[in-house]
Amino acid sequence: QVRLVQSGTEMKRPGSSVRVSCRASGGTFSVNAISWIRLAPGQGLEWMGGVIPASGAPTYAKKFQGRLTVTADESTTTVYMELRSLRIDDTAVYYCAREVATGTEYDGMDVWGQGTMVNVS
Amino acid sequence: SYELTQPPSVSVSPGQTARITCSGDALPQQYAYWYQRKPGQAPVLIIFKDVQRPAGIPERFSGSTSGTTVTLTISGVQAEDEADYYCQSTDSNDSYEWVFGGGTKLTVL
Asked: What does the alpha-carbon distance between residue A1 and residue A26 come to, in Å, rounded to a whole number?
């Protein structure tokens, strides 16, 4: 049973950076992409970016390019999300999620972390 | 940027059928995925590739597609189905950039 366990709540000041971790256990880590999605108060889900650990090459939503870095450490089966130049409206719950595929066809995000609250104030 | 449009809210009585739509210009070419999110919980994948249901998801959840609109149908709605529902897709086979709809709050009256 694959599990994604995220790091704990973060309290940050505007202009600072935050790094959230997502540790995978119980499955094959390297071949599945891991995405980061956030849910701000009163808003909907927002995809931020992701990475395939085996390739190490990340992809970012245009909105976050230049401010977001997603990295993977295969030795610890952990994916990291670092968001810089934090603003008040970055306050949100941040989720990591595993993407699954059948061959080249995407099958969705089937396992999610428990979420990490990031408060910027 | 690409957008997926959902109604903000849908209300039904228990036992009735709820239909939640998601519209996007690229949906005829791209698959859609549906997630259920209950307060304080992480989202759960309930439909993938427009119409397929993951193991463990009740049969009352189904997906369909017609042109630029995909629909999540919940038959025989139960109180426990009250949640936010989000569609997800992309507008390109080349750019790996996922988009979520704005979400629909399903209220069971």
From this structure: 5
Residue B2 contacts A where some CB pair is shorter than 8 Å: no
CA of B86 vs chain A CAs: smallest distance (Å): 8
> How many residues are listed for chain B in this entry?
109
Count of other CB atoms within 10 angstroms of residue B34: 27
Strands, DSSP E only, in chain A? 3-6, 10-12, 18-25, 34-39, 45-51, 58-60, 68-73, 78-83, 92-102, 105-112, 116-120
Count of other CB atoms within 10 angstroms of residue B5: 13
Distance CA B86, CA B72 (A): 10
Q: Which two tokens stand for residue B108?
A: 């069971």
What pLDDT is stored for residue A86 in this prediction? 98
Q: Do A108 and B101 touch (CB under 8 A)?
A: no
CB-based contact, A52 to chain B, within 8 Å: no
List per-block mean pLDDT (blocks of 10 residues) for chain A, which spans 121 residues: 95 98 87 94 95 86 95 93 98 96 89 98 97
> Coil, strand, or helix at residue A18?
strand
**pLDDT at residue A14, rounded to an integer:** 98
Q: Does B103 touch chain A (CB under 8 A)?
A: yes
